[in-house]
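Quick start: read one record
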Amino acid sequence: MTGHPDKLSQAELRNIGEFLADAADEFADHSCNDFSCAPTPENKAVFTNIIEWQAGEDWGDPDPTYLDSLEKAYAENEEIVSFDNWVMGYFAQRLKALAQDASGSPGLSAAELRMMAALLDLVIEFREMDRDDHDITVDYTLSATDENKLFLASVIRHEGLADSERMVADVRQSDDEIAVPDYWIMRYFSDRCKKLAAE
């Protein structure tokens, strides 16, 4: 699952898409779920795609909400705003489609990569609140294949914990399924997206 230096691999696309699909369902139940970004032409183009995708879904809002959303996206505001679960759902299906392409993620723009990172960071924020306030952690479990061990070693080192090398050694020696907090993996993917967006 480890990625290519200059693009997201098919496995990474698939896994980020799955995280965002789950998050879209989770965040749909939140009472406050705005997602905003700077009103650049690139971001407005992505938001247009999001609004058009949402309007075409079975549960999508019909006109005039659709037209009103487009109008707001292109208005002269300090930021453009949508619902976070719409944006998550849009990227979940987009990444699922891209994951079918062996060429990987050249089709993702820097604006899209930055939005994906921001969405993952939003989920991470809620996971850390659950950890700190309620002692709740959601684990992500992988089988003990060599590829998965290599990936999890990268994730653990990325967290920069004091006992990272001991944890990596435990992962390498494990013959059983291996679990880490899911937000560790999301943070790894988020920073991957930020790095790629900056290149």
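The two ends are 21 Å apart (CA to CA).
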